[in-house]
Every structure is written in structure tokens, then in C-alpha cells.
Batch of 2 targets.
Target 1
Amino acid sequence: MSEQQQRSADRTEGAPQDPGAVRPEGRRDDEAVSQFVERFAAQLVEAGMQRMSARVFACLLASDSGVLTSAELGERLQVSPAAVSGAIRYLSQVDMVSREREPGSRRDRYRVHSDQWYEAMARRDNILTRWEGTLRDGVESLGEDSPAGRRMNETLVFFEFLQKELAGLLQRWREHRDQIRAEYGDAR
């Protein structure tokens, strides 16, 4: 499917539908998609994400192309452009979506990437390294033999373990992902 056809399909994906009408083969149940977006967004909120950012992210994730304009997001989520703008700003800052210019237009569109979760986990590696350094300083400051020092050291050892395991896990994921993509004929 061409990019133009994909954008057209994404635009009609959220179009109103006669509830009694029989869905053509391959046509999505818009109500089910909307319920998924809200349910997944609620789970992201429980994990600490801002509500509107979670809804926008889930909406992008649920679109076939993974790319929507602000107007399309607002229409699908039934929210104002300002709400979408604030959510996009946050999602862009934490590298969960990217902004790109729609070809031949002055409108921006927003893309969620297939490797989003992998990239987020890979960025955690840098955070863990910084935390480990700070925790080492804390253990040294508190003294290894003090109750607080032992507790801090156990936290440090946990993060060291996590970081070591994460590197292997991410490598196994890349291999698994490549196998899945080969099965789909997707050479991203």
C-alpha cells in the first residue's frame, strides 16, 4: 500500500459508521479501536504518563501508518488542538513520537515508531549508568556497613544486575524482531 493510500485508510479508520451495517473484510470496528485506545491509555496513566499524552500515544499506535496530523488526532480523540499540542510536546520531549512535515503541506504530522519500546528501554541503560554512579557515591558516604549503606548497596547491585540483563535482553529482542519482520516481509 502506498503512503497516500495508507493516509487515506487512516483518515477513514475513524469515520462514523452505521452500527447496523456489515463491516467489509479488513474494515476495523471503530468503536473497538476507540475502546482499545482508552483502555491502553488508562494503563499508561497508571504507569505514570500524563493522561492526554497517553491517549495521543495510544491513538498513534493504533493507526495503521503510525502517523497522524494534529487535526486527525483531535478528531479521533474528540479533544481540542491545544490538548493535542501539549501532549505532542511532552511525547516529543521524551522521544516517543517524532514530528515531520506532511509532503507538499505546511501541516505537521506525528509519527510513532515501530521500535519505540526498544528505544525507550535502550535509553534506560544511560539512566541506570547515572544512577549506579550516584548510588556508589551514596554507599561510600553512608558507609558499607551501616543499615542505610547496605540498603543503598543492594539497590546498586540490583541496578547493576538489571543493566547487565537488559543488554542481553535487548540483543535477543533485536534478533527476535528481525525474525518477525522477515516473516512479514517487512525490511524496516
Target 2
Amino acid sequence: MNDIPERWSGAHVYPDMWADPDEDPRNSGGPSPDGELATLQDYLADYRLTLRMKCEGLDAEQLARRSVPPSTMSLLGLVRHLAEVERDWRNWIVPGDPAPALYGKPDGDFDGAAADQALVEGAFADLVREQAATDAALAAHPDPGARVGRHGSSVRELWIHRVEEYARHCGHADLLRERIDGRVGQ
């Protein structure tokens, strides 16, 4: 028996894409946004949506399925990890004591990713909540050149780091999804 899934795409117009242009929610068809901050926000929104698209249609077992030993990486682990790093970025910005880690010990985001529907729903709820809270914290600083937080990070650096983090993990999600059910596409 062969446990390697056959490669397939949900797109017909461009088979290397995830979805056809008319069905891809990331394809606004309009002009790109004006300004640095709006461009960074647009890229981040597209990567966030890409991650969700890579997870759609999978059950809890598939979302928690690990890539290859000894890695603990899974799509569910990525969702939990990104919720955790959103909280970390917000901790860099807001005054006071940092909020505690969502998933406990280091690597708890990946190690605790188990095939349980309640855990899946909780992870996606955590991600949405943490994204909104970090977005709100950064919205108070519309100047990309402003320095914020205890370490004096620039708002620009935080936005670019967020885009980079999601982009990198969307690449991981591509490979994880292909290994789960063979679906490919950007």
C-alpha cells in the first residue's frame, strides 16, 4: 500500500495555484494599496488568509499530523505557533508585564498540537483573538518609523517581521498540506 497521496490542485486555469483567480479570496483584482503601512497590512492579510486556506477541509487528525520525524511541525502546530508569536509581538509593544505564553513551555505550541476537535477550535479562536489584539496595539502607532516598546523596535520592523513570519510558515503549510492529501498550489 502506498501512503503517498497523489498531487492535485483546486485550480484549473493555472494548475500551480491553490484556486482559480475568480475563486481566490486573496485576489481583489483592484489596484494595490497606497502607502507603506497599507501595503504591509495587505500582505499580512493575504498570508493570514493563505494559512487558513491551507487548513480548510481537513479534520483534526489531519491538522495535527506531523510532517516527518523528528519534526513536531503540523498545520495545527503552525496555527498555535502563530497565535503565540502574535502575543509575543504585542508583548514587545504594550507597557507592563508581558502576557504569559498561551501554550506553556517552549515548543508547547507544536508539542501540544493533538488530534482533538476542541483543541483545533480553540487554536483558531486563539489565533483570531491574538491577531486582533496585536493589530489593535499596532494601530495606535500609524507611523512606520515610530519606535515602540521596551526595546525601541520600529513599527516598520514589527510589521515586516509579522509578514516574514507568516510567509515562512505558509511555505511550511504548503509542504504539510501536500503531504496530508496531495493538494498543491500557492
